[in-house]
Amino acid sequence: MSDLKAIIFNIQGFSIQDGPGIRTTVFFKGCPLSCKWCANPESQVFKSDIIHVPTKCTHCFRCLSFCTKGAVKLPDEIGGNPIFDHSICVNCEDQDMCEHSCYSAAIEKVGKNMTVDEVMDILLDDEPFFRKSGGGVTVSGGEPMVHPEFVKELFIECQDNYIHTAMETCGYVAWDVFKEVLKYTDLVLYDIKHMDPEIHKELTGVTNEVILENLRKIVSETSTEAIIRIPVIPGANDTNENMHATAQYAKEIGIREVHILPYHRMGMGKYIGLGIEYPLGESVESPSNERMETIRDIFRSYGLICKIGGTEKGDSK
Amino acid sequence: MSRRINLNYTKRDTLTPKVKEAKEKLFAAEPHIDTRKLVIETEIYQKYGFTKSPNMLKAMVFDRLSREKKVWVDENPICGHLTDYVYGSYFQPFREFEWAIDRDEFALQRGSAYATEEEKEIIRKCGEYWVGNAVKDRVRPIIQSRYGLDVQELIDIGVGLNFDDDMGTTTFPDHDTVINKGLNYIIERCKDYQSKLKIWNVDHPDPSAGEVPKEDTFNTAISPMPDYKKWEFYEACIISCEALIHQAHRYAEAAREAAAVEKDPERKAELEQMAEACDWVPANPARTFKEAIQSLWFITMGGWQNLCMTVDHAPLRFPQYMYRCYKDDIEAGRITDDEVIDWIQYWFLKVNTQNFVMSPELALWNSSRIAQQLTLGGLDPKTGEDATNELDYLVIEAQRRAQCPEPLLAVMYHNKLSHKFLVKCAELVATGIGQPSFHGQEVAMKRRLLHESGPIEDIRNQAVSGCVQSVIPGMTDGAWEARFNMYKPLEFMLSNGVDIKSGKHIGPAFGDPCECKTWEEFYAQLIKYYEYWVIICRDISTLEWNVMRDFPCPLLSAVTYDCLARGMDVVDGGARYNWGDGVCISGNVDTTNSLAAIKKLVYDDKVITMDQLVKAIKADWVGYEDIQNLCLKAPKYGNNDDYVDDIGRQLHADFAEIHNRRPDYMGRETITPSAYSVTGHYPFGMRSWASPDGRKAGMTFTDATLSATPGTDKSGPTAVIKSAVKLIDPVVYGSTHFNMKFHPTALEGRENIDKFLDLIKTYFDEGGYQIQFNCVTQEKLLEAKKNPEENKDLIVRVAGFSAYFVTLAPPVQDEIIERTSHTW
Predict the structure, then answer these.
(1) Sign, CA torsion A59/A61/A63/A68
(2) Which residue of A124, A128, A131 is in closest CB contact with B4?
(3) Mean pLDDT, residues A198-220
(4) Which among A283, B553, B632, B822 is most buried, taking Cβ atoms within 10 Å?
(5) Is B213:B565 a contact under the CB 8 Å cutoff?
(6) Which residues in chain A are contacts of B415 at CB distance < 8 A?
(7) Which of A68-77, B289-298, B599-608, B695-704 has the lowest average pLDDT?
(8) CB contact (8 A) between residue B419 and residue A162
């Protein structure tokens, strides 16, 4: 076994949104994209970081006395939260100490360097649930493909234990690297954010040519099953025009199934903890059920299987 | 228990050259009978028969055999040969012996041995002592006088089998203690117990004498031993253990001698290592995996030298008791997984030298098997977690490459087994070897709890034993009773007490079946025949076992709990648990189908009369082909048809109730009927007349006890499985036996293997107990029958065991060819 390591920020058991059956999802840290609506902003940076949860903070400022880097500062007003300079924190080797310094567990270290073995030990705990439910393991992020070697080894181990493997990916990765990992991937849940390259760049920081081309190749050149996932973000990509374009593209390359995920604001709190501004703005609301159904029907009109949220029952059209 | 299985072996499909050579040599070895033990046994029994206890006699025979038998080392790095030959066996003259006199050819498991004139003379001379004094000769007059029945005649007309030809002290030894504590520990215990006996109290033995041992708290023996007998028992145990240690030391000496003259430095080192191992084990706890294997083989070989017989001293939960040494060696870097596989294979080869001389009668129903069951999977006794470890995988891998008929790999199936492990099992099944078989842990535990009390650690510790039964290793005795032809009472019912083939009146006659106006009347009258014949078979068996108590086995009693604590041999009820393996049925599916045909055609649809049916059967259907046709088309078991399955379930429930009216030979209530066929379906079929399911006289019955009659299961594998879980209640019965045949294409590729495993899983979820598979094409079998020389290697699943196809009797071969083959 190699001593390959990757930064994992969470391993979540009983994941029921990330593929068939009961699954365990491994969240990798680090993402080449920076989507404005990202629900896991703590996963974007490639390094481990600390996150401060204001609701738990008792304002004892013990953290301040423990920090040797001068990264924590007193608030400007009485009753305010300690202010963290994350540009220092991400490079700090004493994050563990920082976490332990907080009696009320308001400081969390996100991201842990783990070996494939360590991750496997956790995954195998739930093997009976995978077996019974037809579930398995999903890698997510961040972007799992920023750790291609690690994911490949992990998936080889999974397949050796007859565990179904799924990958949630943005697809922004060189094909040569991608295809090596796909050999051991049973299912990809493939994010398509926008069909227009320019708008895509505006929303995520990168253009979409590589992403679209990669999915085309997955369908035509590999035996990996692919499902398109579209986060429906009001005002960003939720136009009928974009949905028609996506459906057209999906149909053309031979995709059978599309999941549309309504935007939610649950990640907003994390931005505060990380001390960054919420880029999408706080006014954007989740799309209505009616709107989601309209979009679903657009995809169905192309003969695609389409589910809202990926777990909608009774849909096999 | 860690869930993580760390394996690290080279991927290959073939044996290493050294193992291959050893295997080829072994399987080419000529079968021999060995008269050495016969001579020793005869001399000792003649000389001391009246002055020593049975235990002491046995110990003395083993002691002398250990000193006198030929010892040598060969290319197999595990030392020890059962007899003076590579593939040879001893006689068991105390059971029955007249069949052996003046015989030229003797059936062993893998072919025949031919006696020299000199050997024939020895057999004749020793025979003068045994013939007339064997167990059989003592039992049969009692049965004759009590019931007016000739046991031999009951065998000849096919009522039962195995009354006296295959009985003896089967044990399930505690390998864990032998390997991990050593025989010196046992000897110390014997001496300790001996020192606490009140030996002055001979005339009025005091049952409460001596310290009541702490571990003797479960299922107290029915009749305690007097102390002076205990003394002799312990003495016999000590002599036997020391004899085996002495024999091991002789092997050490032989290896050292060979090393002294060996030129090749590699082989020299190996021989020295062999010598060192034999010096140390089985007296002391094994220090390495290799020593553990050597120790295991010594205790097994010693057991077989004391008493060789089918199912005796099987390896049981090998991956459990070998794990300490394996883990230590791997962690210390003393051994690699590749070497472990090699050594497991060397040990497999040793297991395949175990064999016994069969009487012609025994060869009919028990050919080709020694039933050395090795249990994989199962639960950890203490925690109740999945017990699977690295060795479970390595044993499967070793067998996948070695393809040996024995040991028989058997999985104790439970829901916590990992998918990875089950896939490995399925891949082994797909090679066609018919292993592993699958047994339900849950049913085995329920069965044990139904009959006995004991701590949960014992109840969880289930191993597959015999063909398809289960035991708690190291704590269970091994009495088993006769085989019973389930069809014969129905034949007597239809003919009003006559064996149709011979025309003789045998046993009771309860009236003309044509007088029965309703199905209920018919069935009630049939039950009377069962009540008579089942009890007869049970009585013969229990009487046999009581006489068999004169032929104990001190070596293996010494390594079975609680024999030492009680000061009793296993045959006297010293073991903590009773195997409880009662009369064993076969021909039951044919009987079920026959009853369904009778109910349907005669009583429900009234298309024929009982009179017509009886006439047609007596004529073996000749001139009554239309009636035979109706019978063949009547509902058949194996199609999930409640009409026939319900009749069968009722019959088996009634049979079990009748069976359990008698306790076992020790007066214990813990006895259950058993249901597996071995190859008994062949002689029973041969000796039974035409049956109402449309079968012709003399045709082989359906194999196993839950398989469908070939060609009658027309609704696919799921229907057979649904029928199978209905027919016999495996908690009430001590076993069930279910054979399925799959075309090899049904197990190709990952998806098919998953489906196959889902099928097994569903069977166990529905309450099934045992299932096993054949996976060879019909063409391949036909080819092998035609050209046996070129297909010597082909192994098939017969009944509760696997065997080389070409060593089987032709009717059994035909039966296997005819079994319905499933695909998806």
Answers:
(1) positive
(2) A124
(3) 94
(4) B553
(5) yes
(6) 128
(7) A68-77
(8) yes
Do A227 and A299 contact (CB within 8 A), yes or no? no
pLDDT confidence of residue A172 = 94
Find which of A161, A223, A225 to mutate to test the B interface (most B CBs within 10 Å of its CB): A161
pLDDT of residue A303: 94
| Bridging pattern class, strands A112-115 and A5-15 | antiparallel
Report d(CA B337, CA B341) in Å as an integer.
6
Neighbours of A118 (CB within 10 A): 14
Interchain CB distance below 8 Å, A162 and B415: no
For residue A315, give both structure tokens: 């849909």
Find, in chain B, the residue whose alpha carbon is nearest to that of A127: B418
- Strands B170-171 and B477-478, how do they pair? antiparallel
- Cβ-Cβ contacts under 8 Å, B419 against chain A: 127, 131, 161-163
User: Taking CB atoms and an 8 Å limit, are A160 and B420 in contact across chains?
Assistant: yes
Our CA-based measurement puts residue B772 at a distance from the nearest CA of chain A, in whole angstroms, of: 22
Q: Inter-axis angle of helices B54-68 and B289-306, to 10 degrees?
A: 120
**Global pTM value:** 0.87
Q: Which residue of chain A has the CA closest to B3? A: A124
Residue B221 CB coordination number (10 Å): 21
Return the number of CB contacts < 8 Å for A and B.
22
Task: Tell me, yes or no, if A128 comes closer than 8 A to chain B by beta carbon.
Answer: yes
**Residue A66: HSE in the Cβ half-sphere, 13 Å Cα cutoff:** 19
A192: pLDDT strictly greater than 70: yes
Per-residue confidence (pLDDT) for residue B423, from 0 to 100: 94
Segments of B133-190 assigned E as strands: 160-161, 170-171
Instruction: Give B436-492 as a DSSP string.
Output: -EEEEHHHHHHHHHHH----HHHHH--EEETTTEEE-TTSBEE-B--EEETTHHHHH
Segment B91-118 shows an average pLDDT of 90
Helix (H) or strand (E) holding A84: strand A83-84
Lowest mean pLDDT among A138-142, B78-82, B364-368: B364-368
Q: Report the topology of domain A49-110.
A: Alpha-Beta Plaits (3.30.70)
Q: Return the residue of A nearest to B751 by Cα.
A: A162
Cβ-defined contact of A127 to B418 (cutoff 8 Å) = yes
Convert the pLDDT of each residue in B753-803 to its tens digit: 988 999 999 999 999 999 998 888 888 888 888 888 777 777 777 766 777
Q: Is the pLDDT of residue B216 over 50?
A: no
Which of B16, B60, B55 has the alpha carbon at shortest distance from B40?
A: B60
Contacts of A161 in chain B (CB under 8 A): 418-420
Rounded to a whole number, what is the distance in angstroms from the first to the last CA of chain B?
37
In this predicted model, what pLDDT tens digit does every residue of B574-592 receive, in sequence order?
A: 888 888 889 999 999 999 9
Is the separation of the CB atoms in B468 and B462 below 8 Å?
A: no
Q: Given an 8 Å threshold on Cβ–Cβ distance, is B419 in contact with A120? A: no
Task: Identify the pLDDT of residue B217.
Answer: 44
At B521-540, the pLDDT tens digits run 999 999 999 999 999 999 99
Q: Where are the domains of chain A?
A: 5-34+113-308, 49-110
Report yes or no: A125 at the B interface, CB cutoff 8 Å.
yes
ipTM for the complex shown: 0.71
Q: What is the pLDDT of residue B367?
A: 65
Mean pLDDT score, B294-307: 94
Question: CATH number of the domain at A5-34+113-308, please?
Answer: 3.20.20.70
For the residues B351-372, what does the mean pLDDT come to? 82
Which residues of chain B have a CB within 8 Å of the CB of A162? 418-420, 423
Every domain of chain B and the residues it spans: 32-148, 478-528+579-737
Q: DSSP secondary structure string, B91-108?
A: --TTT--GGGTT-SEEEE
Cβ of B301: how many Cβ atoms within 10 Å? 24
Q: What is the mean pLDDT of chain B?
A: 90
